[in-house]
Design goal:
By secondary structure, the chain is an alpha/beta fold. It binds ligand LLP. Ligand LLP binds next to helix 10.
Length: 431
């Protein structure tokens, strides 16, 4: 099995953290997202321990809630002593509702409205990551009206182009995010920010992209950001307290993807940071990391019921499931790869080549094309692995399809993390 928490029992059924998927679907219905709490915790601990061991004091990993956020998950993240990054007032609201300590929350986004900013300040958000000049002006004004001095980091674009999907590549100069170092605008922005009386600039943020397997782009980003910190000290006498390097470590969706040793990557990053700071003659700032995918993706499995199995003579076979792009739009959007298996026959050889189709009225509603699974029959359970990141958080009600339930499994027991959407939910905004 691709992950150590998955196995096969005496009935030939897939088990997740020791629980039989057929019993889970019997009890909680289908489609069903199954989140393994221990696996989330293990991933958190790798970050927390490595950051403590290899990065300058005061460094902290923050969970990127955009990957997947709901109240019970925030409680798990909090108990593992990670902070969080939110990118909208909605994500902030969820974190607040979960009782997450907002001191350790960073508010991102390239277009925060005045209402967003006021909300953040009202709930005492730790820091805003200010994207641009207009936003700084608003934060300064609203903080002044509320009588606070607001801590911010400035989002900069380091001009790095890691080899990842174009739509999830965010650190280039030509990007909707942040302010470019290369054009000189970042230094101008810093100078401007320092002139604002209700703003306390603590440092800088960048995020170069997602699903990155190499360690070099992160070291390159660190060097560029630290060089900027050194220039800021020389030119403006500014001392950088924090550098936030964003998220982005890749995850193994399929056997062919490489395994990433996160702790080793953080170790390398730490070495790069200390030599770079020495070279530029600056004190190493605290480093923040914002992993999303690498915390949550492979801790979750989506279970579907197989419906029609249809072979078009001379073409291919379609296996239809009771979910699809409404709960996992990533194949439709990015052509993302997934490991798929017939979880009712997990002991049988995967010998049936087919395309897994969702139930939406949309020909692009596919989960994976030309995969091999063990001979599918109506009623079998299909498992799609590694669906924790950017699945539920990007889910929709297209065709008025209800979002699945999310259950959390731990110590041989399951509990509901997000209840299944109902038809009643679908009309809750209708007047
Ligand atoms: N920090 C910032 C500022 C980000 O923009 C992101 C992701 C992260 C942290 C977390 O990155 P991660 O560790 O998860 O790679 N919907 C796309 C992914 C978009 C990522 C957006 N930003 C997908 O499904 O692949």
């Amino acid at each position: 099995m691709l992950y150590s928490n998955l196995s096969v029992n005496e009935f030939g059924h897939l088990t997740i953290a020791g629980l039989d998927v057929a019993s889970l679907v019997n009890e909680y219905g289908s489609p069903l997202m199954v989140l393994d709490e221990d696996r989330v915790r293990e991933h958190c601990r790798v970050y927390v321990d490595a950051v403590k061991k290899y990065l300058p004091s005061g460094s902290k990993p923050l969970y990127a809630g955009k990957a997947f956020c709901f109240k019970a998950l925030y409680s798990i993240i909090e108990s593992e002593e990670m902070g969080a990054d939110v990118v909208s007032p909605g994500e902030l609201y969820v974190a607040n509702a979960a009782g997450f300590p907002l001191e350790y929350v960073y508010f991102h986004g390239n277009n925060k409205t005045d209402e967003d900013i006021a909300f953040g300040i009202d709930v005492h958000i730790g820091r805003f990551v200010a994207d641009n000049r207009d936003e700084l002006i608003s934060i300064n004004r609203i903080a002044g009206e509320k009588g606070v001095k607001q801590r911010v980091l400035l989002r900069l674009s380091p001009g790095i182009d890691p080899h990842t999907h174009a739509k999830i590549n965010t650190g280039r100069v030509d990007s909707k995010f942040g302010t470019a170092i290369e054009t000189g605008q970042a230094m101008e922005l810093l100078e401007f920010a320092l002139s604002l009386e209700n703003i306390d600039v603590e440092g800088f943020h960048c995020h170069i992209g997602s699903q990155i397997f190499e360690s070099e782009p992160f070291s390159d980003a660190a060097e560029i950001m630290l060089k900027f910190a050194a220039d800021a000290k020389d030119e403006l006498g500014f001392i950088t307290r924090y550098v936030n390097l964003g998220g982005g470590f890749g995850v193994r969706y399929i056997e062919d993807h490489p395994h990433i040793d996160i702790a080793d990557n953080i170790k390398k990053l730490g070495e790069c940071i200390s030599t770079t700071c020495e070279r530029f003659g600056i004190t190493a700032p605290a480093i923040l990391l914002e992993p999303g995918r690498s915390i949550i993706a492979d801790a979750c499995t989506t279970l579907y019921k197989i419906g029609s199995v249809k072979t078009i003579t001379g073409y291919k076979s379609y296996v239809s499931i009771d979910g699809g792009m409404t709960d996992n739009p990533r194949y439709a959007l990015y052509g993302s790869e997934y490991t798929v298996l017939n979880a009712s026959k997990a002991d049988k050889a995967p010998d049936f080549v087919c395309t897994i189709a969702g139930r939406c009225c949309e020909s692009g509603d596919l989960i994976q094309e030309d995969v091999k699974i063990a001979s599918p029959k109506r009623g079998d359970i299909l498992a799609v692995l590694c669906t924790g990141a950017y699945n539920y958080s990007m889910a929709s009600n297209y065709n008025r399809i209800c979002r699945p339930a999310v259950i959390i499994v731990k110590d041989g027991k399951a509990r509901v993390g997000i209840r299944r959407e109902t038809f009643e939910d679908l009309i809750r905004y209708d007047m």
